[in-house]
Amino acid sequence: MAPRANWKGFLRLSLVTCPVALYPATSESEKVSFNQLNRKTGHRIKYAKVDADTGEEVANEDIVKGYKVDTDTFIEVTKEELENVALESTRTIEIDEFVDRSEVDPRYLIRPYYLVPDGKVGHDAFAVVRETIREMNKVAIGRVVLTNREHIIALEPMDKGLMGTLLRYPYEVRSADEYFDDIQDVKVTKDMLDLARHIVNQKAGHFEPDKFEDQYETALLDLINQKRAGKPIAAKERPRGENVVDLMDALRKSIGGGAATEAPKKPARKARKAAAGQKEMLMPIAGKKPAKEAAAKKLPAKPQRKSA
Questions:
Q1: Would the CA dihedral through 95, 100, 103, 104 be positive or negative?
Q2: 144 burial class (0-12, 13-18, 19+ CB within 10 angstroms)?
Q3: What is the pLDDT of residues 112-144, one digit of tens each?
């Protein structure tokens, strides 16, 4: 079943307008999730909304939003009052400007969406906007209201549609200075750089998301299946980080050589193959590996996902 649109409205570039729908481009539904249980009874925990002073449960229709002024003072704001905040971006994504993709600081990126024409009309206008952005090799910047808040959205072509990425406002991004100021200025020698470049060349590849595996998710599924099968759970030894005493020695050993290995003279040459038995460490990210579908599909209500 196709996901429901998070937002429907209009995309507008000057006088060119077309109806569009915004869909989430990512999903967390396939991840393993847990419920909270009462250890004594095994029953699920139920949360109730109660009055902080009286302790009595409050019905949903009696709950309103409130802005905290001080410890005991709140300004109540109703749903109707929020809806009356008349922003044009509530129903229209107005393209304000076009910028180079390289100018969009990755710290401002929040989450991606798919933007498509809504209905049978407006496909021509949508195509004009999409191909103009593609031809100019730009990113279109507009605004859209989602979950009662206005967001900046960056639009760029993706196949026949548009990908819209929500952006943070400047006040939401922390300055790096408070984190980076204490980093020491270290002189990196040419030999160290040559060895490090050699390691990079050994591990050079292409970004192929399908080859990444969420190792933690796989481990969770294994744990659940073992418990369902009544097998004992043995604690696994955690990997230990070793203190680097000699950085040059560590770099040399990383490329498969001993302490006497010299730095490669011409790192620009074709990279050597990895030493026998050397594996490539893949960073676990969200997503499933097709080759392990049996272990990565969503855990069914009763039957096991794979034989234990």
A1: positive
A2: buried
A3: 999 999 989 899 999 999 999 999 999 999 999
Beta bridge partners of 17: 12
Q: Kindly state the tokens that stand for 252.
A: 């040399």
CB 216 within 8 A of CB 284: yes
> At 241, is the pLDDT very low, low, confident or very high (cuts 50, 70, 90)?
low
Mean pLDDT for the chain overall? 82
- Taking 50 as the threshold, does the pLDDT of residue 247 lie above it? yes
Task: Render pLDDT for 15-37 as a digit per residue (tens, 0 to 9).
Answer: 899 999 999 999 888 889 999 99
Work out the number of other CB atoms within 10 angstroms of the CB of residue 163. Answer: 16
Taking the C-alpha atoms of residue 60 and residue 58, their distance in angstroms, rounded to an integer, is: 6
pLDDT of 308 strictly over 50: no
CA distance 243 to 245: 6
Residues 6+ positions from 247 with CB-CB distance below 8 Å: 192
Nearest to 95 by CA among 189, 150, 203, 17: 17
